[in-house]
Hints:
A: alpha/beta, Nucleotidyltransferase, domain 5, Rossmann fold, seven-stranded mixed sheet, 29 helices, 24 strands, B: Nucleotidyltransferase, domain 5, eight-stranded mixed sheet, 17 helices, about 35% helix, about 20% strand
Amino acid sequence: MAECGGSGSGSSGDSLDKSITLPPDEIFRNLENAKRFAIDIGGSLTKLAYYSTVQHKVARVRSFDHSDKDTEQDHEPPYEISVQEEVTARLHFVKFENTYIEACLDFIKDHLVNTETKVIQATGGGAYKFKDLIEEKLQLKVDKEDVMTCLIKGCNFVLKNIPHEAFVYQKGSNPEFRFQTNHPSVFPYLLVSIGSGVSIVKVETEDRFEWIGGSSIGGGTFWGLGALLTKTKKFDELLHLASRGQHTNVDMLVQDIYGGAHQTLGLSGNLIASSFGKSATADTGTGLSPALALGGAWRPPGRLPSVLLLPPRVLQGGHGQEPAAHDQQRHRAARLPVRQAPLLGPGVLRRLFHPRPPRHHAHHHLQHQLLLQDPNQYSWEENYAGSSGLMSSSPELCPTQRPRSGTFDLLEMDRLERPLVNLPLLLDPSSYVPDTVDLTDDALARKYWLTCFEEALDGVVKRAVASQPGSVDAAERAEKFRQKYWNKLQTLRHQPFAYGTLTVRSLLDTREHCLNEFNFPDPYSKVKQKDNGVALKCFQRVIHSLDALGWEERQLALVKGLLAGNVFDWGAKAVSDVLESDPQFGFEEAKRKLQERPWLVDSYSKWLQRLKGPPHKCALIFADNSGVDVILGVFPFVRELLSRGTEVILACNSGPALNDVTYSESLIVAERIAAMDPVIRSALREGRLLLMQTGSSSPCLDLSRLDKGLAVLVRERGADLVVIEGMGRAVHTNYHAALRCESLKLAVIKNSWLAERLGGRLFSVIFKYEVPAE
Amino acid sequence: MGAGRLGAPMERHWGVAATSASSVREPAPGGPDGRRREPLRRRANSASAPAVGASASAEGVRRDRPGSYSGATSASRQRVESLRKKRPRKCPAGRPSVSPCPLPVAVFPARRQCPRSVVPVFPWFGLDIGGTLVKLVYFEPKDITAEEEEEEVESLKSIRKYLTSNVAYGSTGIRDVHLELKDLTLCGRKGNLHFIRFPTHDMPAFIQMGRDKNFSSLHTVFCATGGGAYKFEQDFLTIGDLQLCKLDELDCLIKGILYIDSVGFNGRSQCYYFENPADSEKCQKLPFDLRNPYPLLLVNIGSGVSILAVYSKDNYKRVTGTSLGGGTFFGLCCLLTGCTTFEEALEMASRGDSTKVDKLVRDIYGGDYERFGLPGWAVASSFGNMMSKEKREAVSKEDLARATLITITNNIGSIARMCALNENINQVVFVGNFLRINTIAMRLLAYALDYWSKGQLKALFSEHEGYFGAVGALLELLKIP
């Protein structure tokens, strides 16, 4: 039992528990604006959820009322920017050990300013046990909800709203966590809830589910037996202990019964024939160290996958060469009348088996309770800035070595103003993955991009401070932002899977969330304003020179214009350095930077050929940057399409991200251009040019989460061409996206590492024109 | 106890020719062995095991056990093939073979041909070497003529006398006298069938005894099944100069059960069930007539657990198994209570109260969990109360033993119930040495099966619970189908 020294360090953990101080800023965020509460008290963990309203600053743009007076004055910006307060809804989820429940309730009581409600929804076994305590502390009436119903509703909710929620765990593979893209429909699935005991539920629709079976041998059994058989009494420490144990000292394996013959018999000798079967025999009984062996034998599922989901295709899946059940739950699940579905604890997962423990499993119970009043009419988005992500499931990480805050798991979800849906033009929504490179998978790329984002951090901080010259605390907030994002990057270095599949998009989005967190809603608003003003002044000149060209020359010039415009990307360090140092850098300079044809990816000839044919019915264009990009690149291109008789839907971000043009900015820009150009003017008036919002605030583009209004319009107008512009939208994401109609993906590679990786150089051009197979 | 092998969809079907009476009558030591005993039984090769119920195509992926044709001519092989093709499969195509944890199916090596005459020479043994216990059945001929007795070699006589005049052998061997089957006729010989068991860890001593008593001079064949038949094969050969005839344990198990049930238990019924199992006062053990045994779910609880669906005497499949079996109960009890024997563990369990150890539904919900129809007395989390320090301190060793027993038994019952549901079988026979003198487990199985199936399922038990594998091995020796 020498190794039980581990439990010695565990006792120091005990003393820690008794004197906890809550870091309030971190854990019960925005509690003063909490409106409704729900709590789920399980056998060992408490999950608290609340619904709050969040007030934060947003940058709004507005045309000057007197704009028609004298707009061409040199130093006057094309529109005004004002910072306003906006109120949005947010869900907070906090998970902690039951030990802290009283301290937490006290904390909540002290910080609760004003709630609308007199009731707290409660579920879980502990709802009975702690009812009086909750009612006394919070002065809220406990209203009990059915635990399984809550679990299932919550599970559905999370699966629908967090794209990278479910994952497959494969021990020993790299990465060990592989996140699954959510299918448009998650049903039917098998829900295996492993708490103290085990419940197996078949979920067929939002409201229809059936309890199929269960097992009393669950987490409580592991804990209870572990506590009896070893000197270790705490769950995490038991897990840790188990990870170091050797179950073969305790379990009777096939090879123990068959001798060496199992090999010639084609049996795997490591299969457990009888759990604990060895601990009875005289020869091993004496020298046994059950402390070390227990966990291995029992294969605790751990705290992490307390909910396993088995998606339909897995349920139908055949059997693989799977070693025998280590734990009994697997057998149980297998016997379900629905379909065979082996499911397992960590360590025995294989290709064919995809139990999918959602990252936020423990919070699932809660969502539903809060959502009772808010039916699923909204879309939600995880706030990376306020969520703690997936902690390491690895019991190898000794619990006492874990940072204190690790005991509190957080999840925040922001309510989006508009519901998000799939782009109807996706060829196969169920297999669509927005991101081109999975950084959890690609260690080299991960290292590069993490470093890249670290190095860019100074610039972002500087930009954030500069964007709010009037604010006294801007520097302080910017510093906090730096710390927060830096920490996130460090977490991701060690646990790339912490927030789902790590991608360039998730790194960018996390940065935007962190900026918002510290009230830097739109650090580039001024830059965009200036760039738009400058570009608008050049618009007519550019149009004149284009119109002077012959048809074929013009087509190439338009495409080059789109590409040159795309060089103006403040998100790319190579560019922002140039733009910072050379204020005169303009459209023509950018054109000269471009790679000469043939481009890195060059299907221009095919595109030109296509243009000689009949016009497209309707083109959907996703715009990228403000300024030169949208005004001198996109609008002339749009104008040409309109002249051909093609309708155009121009989709811009709903919210700000870097210097990407936002929907509201695009409205003003279009209005200004319309004032100068009759083609655009009449198209706007006649509804042949429509400006729409994407529903997103990301520099990248997820075609499976687009504004519903946009999707409806795309279907109504029968869009048959999709143009995606820019590195974020056409390279980091959607590079491989297959659409049901023609598509044009174009970008300038403004990052030498990426360019090299793709076999080109800085400012290489991607021009990818694709026609779907018949 | 037989090792419960886990996993794999083993759709196995009884070989025809291998066990046909005609082959028994076939004379000839010296003839090509393969002619007499075609190794017909195959197993699905799990590596390419057909998925759910692909029984029609299963033939295609089966493969013979490596080396199983040692000595067989290609002609005999063809004969075998043609025989097999004529035999329609009993299992309806499309029947789902539940195989949750497909594992490498045991592909057994050559069944060594056991040289023999029409009726094998004495002594007649059947051996089942499990993970924990060795089960030995011995046929004692009672119709020995004086002439025979005279010819009987000394070593044979001494074996007979030693086995039949003792009820215990060494410190660990035990003859279950109460199970003895009297006046049995086997291969035209009348005699008694004895049932003997000893721990597997005493196997070396047993082999040594075989050497000391010069078994090899008897030219007998040891038909052995269970994993130990493989594990100890080499020892038998090198130490005892004995050639084992290795047999598949599930084949033996089913053969043994069907045979023993057919001969009854000295005029009584072999099979029984419990009425009012939950009520100590009214609980009654009643005989059950297993006249229509098929289909049958067979749950063999040895060290581990195997569950078989039996559709006819030569059509069965292994549905699943679990490693939580008798070995788990005993092993955990040893760790938790310091007991040293199975009997002691059971005795402690009989005096304990598991509800102090287990967390019940009512401990969590205050009563029944009505939403899903779970009664308050149902166990929600086995050993779940042991998370708490106070409760750990309040339990006795007897309580822990009881909880262990209840946990393992409930789990097996629940798996069996789901299997029965899936296979659409409502007779469930529980066998295996876990049930020996284990009324608590049997009554619990009977009650749980009845309760959770709302009366649809019947739990059946058999007097010779742990010995069927050994009986099957003996029958194989005698070529009794």
